[in-house]
Amino acid sequence: MRTFRYERASTTSGAVALLAEAPHGAFLGGGTNLVDLMKLDVARPDLLVDVRRLTSDRVEELSNGGVRIGAGVSNSQLAADPLIRRRYPMLSQALLSGASGQLRNLATAAGNLLQRTRCPYFQDVTTPCNKREPGTGCSAIEGHHRDLAILGTSPECVATHPSDLAVALVALDAVVRTEGPDGERVIPMTELHRLPGPEPQRDTVLRHGDLITAIDLPPLAFAACSYFRKIRDRASYAFALVTVAAAIDVVDGVVRDVRIAFGGVAHKPWRAIKAEELLRGGPAGEDQFRRAAEAELADARPLAGNAFKVPLARNTMVRTLLELLEGPR
Amino acid sequence: MEAEVTFRVDGTSHRLTVDVRTTVLDALRERLGNTSAKKGCDHGQCGACTVLLDGQRVNSCLALAVAHDGAEIVTAAGLASDGELHPLQRAFIRHDAFQCGYCTPGQIVSAVGMLREAEAGWPSAVTAGQPADGGSGGSDGPTVGILTDDEVRERMSGNLCRCAAYANIVPAIQEVARG
């Protein structure tokens, strides 16, 4: 590991100021991804500004009926929070389907959103990778890409975003609150992560020095009936092949509202806008769910090794919505 | 860059100067001579380095020592009290829950942390695995009852055993979980 300077600030603005002066510095949260990437020489920060205990570690109810998650809340604490489990069960399920108990105890909520892709070439400095070293090429397109993206890819990058939490947050229309050199911002989760395009080195729209201070969940009554389903190679402790986060509000057989997001299929958590629009106001049933999934996945451009993800994503979405219709067991 | 840190390890306080790149695992093994926690993968994937850090199980290979200055650390070597092995240590011996033993300190410390988590009502992917049920365990709020074998396997999935002693690890943990 290369050496670095380690600093702790007493305020969020102090932390932002420290990083603003260090173009190659980084914030340190739980460190479960960053420290690993530093060992692999993929991340080479010359300054770490430790923010783990700087931002709130509490989950609080907002006056509008929503919930605010402090950036420093651990993944374990968030998954176990009674308010989250009651009102947004898919969020708790998403967290619990990722990593291990040990990692969830260290990892922070904000850090979860900012983890880097697990594309094997990104993590291997001996191979070309446009995300790690822009302009060197993509090893995955002609190489091992079974786990990688089918939607929104570019000729430069087919990486997927690894966070399960982010998929649930996108489905819930959550927003992140940031503090940065240019002041405070509120960024919808649907806009936080970006598609790779010609600049796959940029995972998110955050600018250098932007610090996530909180994640706000809007009130969404029918999210109390929501589900996060993860398909992976092992029963536990593995990254996703495909995930679906969904909530549905059905009255007298008609879909009043629905939220669907896919994970494991793109460079960002994939909100299924087309599928949602097709379903809203129509009857709720397997045929409708299937047609909506097919419409959403019509733009999929899989590679030779991951074409299986298209029917897998479709079937996972259909099954998840059907199980939600059946209600609590 | 170097930094001075203080740790309480298995009940004894230590003050030491570390390179900021030093992980908690390396500080324990290389600086304090406590080799209970093992270095397996060194990437947070195998769980051999598991310690209790301020009461919670974590991968000590991913925790920078400087970021956890002042922490209370418990390793498997610190679980015994007055020469008496911890119930989980006794259960692992009784059930022959290891072969080479390399993952064992991490398994045992992880199980201690895991049982505390379950007792505190923390759900797992198995508890919370039902649609429209965040694992609230019914109307009385978050409770986790008797752990099924599936629960134990899910909650312990961060600890790998390459000898595959899982068939004995689960009953060993269950014996303690069920008192």
Tell me what you see in this structure.
The complex is a heterodimer of chains A (329) and B (179). Among the domains of chain A are: 5-49, Uridine Diphospho-n-acetylenolpyruvylglucosamine Reductase, domain 2 (2-Layer Sandwich); 225-326, Enolase-like, domain 1. The longest helix of chain A is centred in the C-terminal third of the chain and has 18 residues, at 309-326. In chain A, 28% of the residues lie in helices and 20% in strands. In chain A, α5 packs antiparallel against α8, α10 runs antiparallel to α11 and α11 (286-296) packs antiparallel against α12. Chain A contains 12 helices and 12 strands. The N and C termini of chain A lie far apart (50 Å). In chain A, the strands form 3 sheets. A 5-stranded antiparallel β-sheet of chain A has the order 4-5-8-6-7. In chain A, strands 9-10-11-12 form a 4-stranded antiparallel β-sheet, with helices on both faces. With 329 residues, chain A is an alpha+beta fold. Chain B has a 5-stranded mixed β-sheet, sandwiched between helices. Chain B contains 5 helices and 5 strands. In chain B, α2 crosses α5 (166-177). In chain B, 50% of the residues are buried. Helices cover 28% and strands 15% of the residues of chain B. At the A-B interface, α2, α3, α4, α5 and α6 of A face β4, α3 and α4 of B.
Mean pLDDT of chain B: 92
SS class of chain B: alpha+beta
By CATH, the architecture of the largest domain in chain B is named Orthogonal Bundle
Q: Give the strand order, joined by hyphens, for the main sheet of chain A.
A: 4-5-8-6-7
Report the sheet-strand fraction of chain B. 15-25%
Q: What is the molecular shape of chain B?
A: globular
Can you tell me the overall shape of chain A?
Answer: globular
CATH structural class of the largest domain in chain B: Mainly Alpha
What is the H/E order of chain B? EEHEEEHHHH
The chain pair with the largest interface is: A-B, 49 and 49 residues
Major pleated sheet of chain B: 5 strands, mixed
Give me the number of helical elements of chain B: 5
* CATH architectural arrangement of the domain at 225-326 in chain A: 2-Layer Sandwich
Protein name (chain A): Xanthine dehydrogenase family protein subunit M
Domain FAD-binding PCMH-type (chain A): 1-222
Organism (chain A): Micromonospora tarensis
Keywords (chain A): Oxidoreductase
